[in-house]
Amino acid sequence: MTLEKQILEKLRAARLHDPALRDEDRERRSHLGHLPSLVPLWPLVVIARHAGEGRIDAALAAVGVYLTATSLVRGGAIRQQLRSGPDVAAFAALPASDEWLADRVFRAAAREALVVMLPILVAGWLALPPGSTIWQWAAWAAAGLIGPALVAALATACAVVPVLARWSSFGFVLHVALFVTAYFPLSLPDELPGIAWFLIGLTPGGWIAQILRHAGGQSDAAALVWFAPVVAVACALPALRSRLARHHAVAEIVVLGQQTHVARFEGEHLDDMPTLIAGAEPAAESTAEPDAEPLAADPKVAAEGKAPAPPVTHEHIARILEAGAPRDRGPIDRMVWRMLGEREAHVIEWLMGRRARFTGEWRAILVACSVVAVGSFVVLGDLIPIVAIAVPLILGVALFTWSGFESRRSGGQLSPLHAPYPISYAEAARAMLKVNAVRLLVAGPAVLIAGTIAGRNAGLTPLEAAALAGKLWLMLVAAQPLLVAGAFMGGASDRLGFRSVIATPFVIVAAIAWLTSGIAWLMAEGAEGWLAFAAFAAIPLVVLVVYGWLYNRGHVDLLRTPR
Amino acid sequence: MRVAIDGLTKRYGAYRALQNVSMTIESGQIVAVLGANGAGKTTLLRCLATIAAPNAGSIHLDGEPLSRGRLDLRQRLFFLPDSPFLFAWPTPVQHIGMVLRLYGKERAGTADRVFGLMEALDLLGCGRAPIAALSRGQSYKTALAALLAVEPELVLLDEPFASGMDPQGTLVLREWARRAAGNGTTLLYTTQILEVAEAFSDKVAILHRGGLHAFDSVAALREQTGAAEGSVLAGVMAPLRETGR
What we know:
The complex is a heterodimer of chains A (563) and B (245).
Chain A: H1 3-17, H2 19-29, H3 41-52, H4 56-84, H5 86-92, H6 98-112, H7 117-127, H8 134-160, H9 162-165, H10 170-183, H11 194-201, H12 204-216, H13 220-235, H14 237-247, E1 250-255, E2 261-265, H15 274-280, H16 299-304, H17 314-323, H18 331-339, H19 342-351, H20 358-378, H21 384-399, E3 407-410, E4 413-416, H22 425-457, H23 462-478, H24 480-490, E5 493-494, H25 498-523, H26 526-552, E6 556-557
Antiparallel strand pairs in A: 1-2, 3-4, 5-6
Chain B: E1 3-12, E2 15-25, E3 30-34, H1 41-48, E4 56-61, E5 64-65, H2 71-74, E6 77-80, H3 92-102, H4 110-120, H5 136-150, E7 154-157, H6 167-182, E8 186-190, H7 194-199, E9 203-208, E10 211-216, H8 218-225, H9 232-237
Parallel strand pairs in B: 3-8, 3-9, 6-7, 7-8
Antiparallel strand pairs in B: 1-2, 1-4, 4-5, 9-10
Helix pairs in contact in B: 3-5, 4-5
């Protein structure tokens, strides 16, 4: 019996003898469970999409791309865990060896790799013809069993081989590509050409796809050939595991602020790590305010030989207190701050953590729109729906990020940063809506022009393209109250209890009505279209008002349990 | 500020964090809130700060019912959690400025006061650095400087004496609290250090598994328990280990 099990046994015995302890244990455990992760279902959706339209080849290829993408992403995750994950700081103060920590991360990654077994088996099963032989079934099962080992080995290799490590972010690109090819198939044929299979075979994940393809096609010998590299990589797993442990010998933990740290490995110097440090700690690098200066105790200051900041003076304090948030960062910034009242400006200063750079955002949107417009001449084709989604998403990053709603941990629970400070729902919502109105207004022309050009190149008439871009734009405007309410909802937990159950059907009906009216607005024309838009715009307003009522009357806690 | 808590009950799911807590704290009183881990101390402060909404009961500040919608009341109180809620990138001076503006306290002469507070708390040397580059104690003192600059009428401090502050910071807090209490400021703080609670409080509230076990001055508790010397609070709290809910 493990030590943990022995302790649990003793706790169980103690609860049996102490009713108060038993009650407390029951109360603390009586929460609704968390939703299970839906990540394993993602490749199944892609496979189902291809298989549903008879593209079994594409489904198998998708599995290959998925395995490669997953390996790259998990490799990056292993590196991140060992470099700046929570375990690094937690175990740094304990008598745990670096090898043990590396092995702990490796074992977790290996366990997580088991999820890839499901898509391999599902895609392979779809590829197997009726009346398959025992050898075909054996190849199918073996591919499913060895797939996780292949992914674990590749992920570990990505974590220890610097050249491969640079490709980890490419894994996300491959995941996006999977989605694109599944839902916007670009005229994929039922059977992929030989060149496509050749390219897929160049990637390690593609080897599994080749095995499944040849097993389904009754080419047992070919399937066996493709097993060779898979087995070879899987057999390298123990060696990669020990190399991971050797590679991640921690020289020191570089503490960067209250909750941020990075591990410096043996043989590395702080000078070699500026990107890592900048990525881990936004404060001291590019996002620091002009008034922020380095601190003598900051390791980067020591490493880079910067002069520490002089002590603050009375004049400095008077200047900062008088100045408020920086308002002269360009024409759009000046426009926003002029429009806000004094109190609203203070609230926005807090909700954006003084980081407001409205002009910079606007320039970024102009660049994004230019890329979309120019790109549409070259590659757009069937991708108009993606463009329609992408542009609002790009805007969304700018419009819906409010630093004041970030979570902070205190007393074992998470609260939004604004929670302890006197900011009311009404004034915050009003100020946020005003700010976003300006952002949408100034970015509107660029988005409409880019949308029109893109739509035109996708085969729409200029009028149709402009109308579609305009409609999508108005939808974004109409959704603002919902997004503002959503910012509050994200940091709060409802405590309506049983009343939530009663409210749920109304919420579902409202959500369906909202989506339906949005679709109707896109499809209908004339008065019917505008009626649909009115409904689409009204529902977010109702949500904003109703949630505000609940918020102000204490039907939500500004607390969430960390997961 | 007078604080009247009546029948306060707070549940997290089925877990009863506070159960029918009632007490009245007069203006200018310093109250130490004691109790074992999980007794409900932080929850009590969260309810007073309107971060957590009570399931039952009420809180009145100077006779006015407190709720999250009452911005006027919330601007008169200041809650400082054990881990202060700070942005990473502003400097301490910028943080203090932001807080002063939110509380509407950016009046003339504030710079003198902020300078004096930062000097007393030994923050002048790091006043230009981003908060992320500060130590835990320096971060806490930054948040404390903002609190002291605001001069709220109700101060809620969660474990201020286990915050990583240096003795100088602790001294500044205690001296300020005594002076402010003389002017009517009410202060509630949680602590696990019984000696601090005995020496630095007008009244002590002892919570046990969500309920209010005792609420009185140290002298009155000494009389009730008949303790002649040594820690009174240790004597009061010792039997709680055996008490059920």
